[in-house]
Every structure is written in structure tokens, then in C-alpha cells.
Amino acid sequence: MRETNKIFHLAIPCKDLEETVWFYEKLGCKLARRYDDRVTFDFFGDQVVCHLSPENIDEKPTMYPRHFGITFLEKEAYDQALESATKEELKFFQKPMVRFRGKQEEHMTFFLIDPANNLLEFKYYHDSSMAY
User: Fold this and answer.
1) How far apart are the first and last CA of the chain?
2) Number of domains the chain is built from
3) Interval 28-49: pLDDT, tens
């Protein structure tokens, strides 16, 4: 289980700082710092750093093996994220769906794609014990 005194850090490539800030702020993330070559966000309580690196953009991203995101422990928070992404017209890589229907690990999920083709998954498990 997560300890509250720790923050997860993830660094990803981006191709343009302006469009990156636009996307992540529309997603509800707070811009923490900005430099000439990177931006840092409060990503739902964790730290995501987007490094300007247009030569490292995945032109044909796939969900597996590389994506990142949030597992919500409350359905209302998942619903709010989905509603916000829809309202802000963020680009979906995969529309909302249910995975592992009828099994203990059943969960609701959707994927967004950021301007640098990084894939973000948002999910909610009906059984919170399956979150890990």
C-alpha cells in the first residue's frame, strides 16, 4: 500500500512544451515548474516531468507494454475524470470499457493520448483489493 510521505516520479518525452502544458492542465494537473527543456506537473499527487525530446516520440503507440495513469479508489473520482476528459475534448486512445467482466479484477477503464503520443490509462476497480 502507498505511504503518504512518498511521491512517485515519472519522466516522459514531449515534442512541444506549450501543447504539453495545455493538455495536462486540461486534464486537471497543476503546472509546478517550467524550464526551457521541460515542464513538471502535479499529476494527481505524483510528479510527471515532460522533457522536450521530439526525436523520442513514439509515432505508433500501443497500450502494451508502455502506458501510465491513475487507479482511482473511488468511483466518483473515476467518473469525474471521464467527464472532465470528455468536456475538455481530450483525445481518447480507447473509449471507456469494462475489462475482465464478471471476475474479481473487473474494472472500468479508458485511455487518453497526450500530444506526444504518451498513453494514459484511468481505471476504477469495483473490488478495491484488486488495485495492486
Assistant:
1) 8
2) 1
3) 999 999 999 999 999 999 999 9
3-state secondary structure of 126: coil
CA distance 122 to 68: 9
Q: Does 84 reside within a domain? A: yes
pLDDT in tens, 16-27: 999 999 999 999
DSSP-derived pairing of the beta strands 38-43 and 92-99: unpaired
> Of how many residues is the chain composed?
132
* pLDDT for 68 beyond 90: yes
Q: Which residues constitute the domain of residue 58?
A: 9-130
Task: For residue 92, give every residue at least 6 positions away whose Cβ sits within 8 Å of its Cβ, in sequence order, or none.
Answer: 85, 110, 111, 112, 113
